[in-house]
Hints:
6 strands, Aminopeptidase
Amino acid sequence: MGSTGEPQRTDAPRHHRGKEYFVGAVCFGDRGDGVIEMVYGIATSWRRRGLAPRVARLAGRWALDDPNVRQVELRIDSSQLASQGGAEKAGLRRGGTAT
């Protein structure tokens, strides 16, 4: 999170066998009162490799390491069933639906 509370985007390429690949992105937004909203995306060619649950776990834990953060909310579109499954595999629980 930037000092202004603006979302920060991390989409560094992954190096594999001497080549760079864009694997995905993770973004955080400060909703206030210690609540951080997290969204992420995995590039099409890297999907179905178990990366989404790993991203959700690691990025969520990273955000919670900040003493000012008490909760991380993962935002998933209701039509993204695969993303919902990845979140469940990461051990996240459904908190509600925004319309």
